Amino acid sequence: MEEKYKYIRKKYLTWGIFPLLLIFLLFVAFSLSLTIGEIDISVFELPEIIGKKGDSVIYSILNKIRIPRTILGLAVGGGLSLSGVILQGIYRNPLVEPYTLGISGGAALGVALVIVFGLNHMIGNFMLPLAGFIGSLIAIILVYSLSLRNGKIQIQNMLLIGVMISFIVSSAMMFLMSITTAENLHGIVFWTMGSLDEPDMTLIYGTFWASVAGLLISYLFVKPLNAMRLGETKARHLGINTEASIRILFVIASLLTGICVAVAGVIGFVGLIIPHLIRLTVGSDFRVLLISSFLGGGAFLIFSDLLARTVIAPNELPIGVITGIIGGTIFVIVLSRTRMKLN
Amino acid sequence: MLVFALFAGSCKHEEKKKNADIQSQKIKIVSLTPSITKQLNLLEVYDQVVGHTSHCQSDSLKNSHLVSTGMEVNVEKIATLKPDLILVSSLTRDKIIKNLKKLELNVRYLKMPQSFEEICKQFMQIGSMVDQKKKASDIIQRQKKRLDSLQRLIPNEEKLNFFIEIGANPLFTATKKSFMHEYIKYANGNNISANLKNGMVSRESVLSKNPDVIIIVTMGVVGKEEKKVWQKYPNLNANKKNNIFIINADKASSPTPISFVDVTEKIINLVYLQKNNL
Fold first, then answer.
1. Which pLDDT band holds residue B149 (cuts at 50, 70, 90)?
2. In degrees to the nearest 10, what's the CA dihedral of B77, B83, B87, B91?
3. CB pairs under 8 A between A and B
4. CATH ID of A14-337, from 3.20.20.150, 3.30.40.10, 1.10.3470.10, 2.40.440.10
5. B176 in contact with A at a CB cutoff of 8 Å?
6. Are A186 and B112 an interchain contact pair (Cβ–Cβ within 8 Å)?
7. List of residues 6+ apart from A201 with CB closer than 8 A
8. What is the interface pTM, i.e. ipTM, of the complex?
9. Looking at the partner chain, which of A61, A181, A198 has a beta carbon nearest the beta carbon of B95?
């Protein structure tokens, strides 16, 4: 009995401390991202620079480059990580990530079509993100409708169809890239590389609020997600409407991915690595997993962006290079150390 | 009335003087495209270039800072350099251009030229932006004359069919929408790929069109390897006539008036003149 209480106390202590630790980490990431760059600023100078408002170079850099980039880092990192953790929960498959279901491919195809047909400047800054979002939406609808059988979702089919749609879409992309001009080709390649350079504040705030809304809505489904860890049948026996929960969670995760990809392009590994790292630290209970993944994903992407900007300064690296190398390495180290401990 | 006229006159004079002062002031330039940097070098304004990419030849750029790799641009660095003019092309990401404009920097987009005329037009445009219109015009006139005299050296024979290879894997060529097509045009040849919608071609289609000349525009070992590949087809006209040549990619792919004429001269020499001298 004593042991059980000890375990519960330890668990809740971890649950209480870990999100706080992540909030602190996020605060550190925010501070470093805003202060380190071509011109280094002290953290204490930040309020003064922001409050002063003027046409100084440092004010412009801070207000128009670093702050938007950092907010987008939190929104996209948090959104993709949350989407990853939800999808891994409903598929009960550790290899699933936001891009497995062809959502990113759909977005990329939408953007490529718009660039190839020269429609990219039709409605200003919004055309490419809109095309990306519509592309991802079509991919989501296809995956969803093709995996329905007798009105019921076939989870395993859904995954396979998603992977197939990814293949079809990447071939279609290759086709478009091989028939278009060199200038359009640059546009497509640049977009698919992914970045946090978005200049439009409406899109940045839109992505941020969409991610926060995704987090809040997903908390309404904590019980089904936890129950489904036992398997769909057992969850049903516990009185969970798995069918409806899976549908809604799939739509939330997919829309979130679609929005993130539409605004920031394809930034890999965040949605796969962060949920696993968080799970290894706090366990698989979705009550703490959802918020921790969101905060961890945000902090990770902000740190990655900071490294991409500074590691070979004055040059910059594509952010995907950092998320892949650093994220992948940390993940392998943590995973192997956990295995060693278990042995 | 007289006082007013004198006052207005002096105002106009001052305004003119101010404009002249601004024009005589050396503006600070950032170039985010290697071919534009080359054009700035030709206009001898390299001391005004304060930012360049890692692909630009930076030997003469003593006052310049590295601000971009092939893929990413350091917007913060550019902002701290406070340039008066930033020259970009399709090689720069759209979002970067918008961020630079957001910082209220003077960004000018230059389209990639598709012909010798467009190369000259762009060169003039850059010339007037950096207050070197006269120099730009002189260079263009000289190169046009050079091109004319080069064309007169070409013997009056039937036009040869050319294939220009600008990528090996996949095989990629220049269509009539590329300035490289004009190397062939000014060398009095037919580009067998002129009417293709896109530059990607199969080796089979090139063989079926049996070009008389193959120009390989690739760097280093790839070029030599490609030459060997084409030499495996003894019935190919280009092989029979020993007309497979490798051209320096760095020069051939940068559209400046001088490099364009240099490359055309090289092609004319290789195809028509050197053989006649043998």
1. very high
2. 0
3. 92
4. 1.10.3470.10
5. no
6. no
7. A68
8. 0.74
9. A198
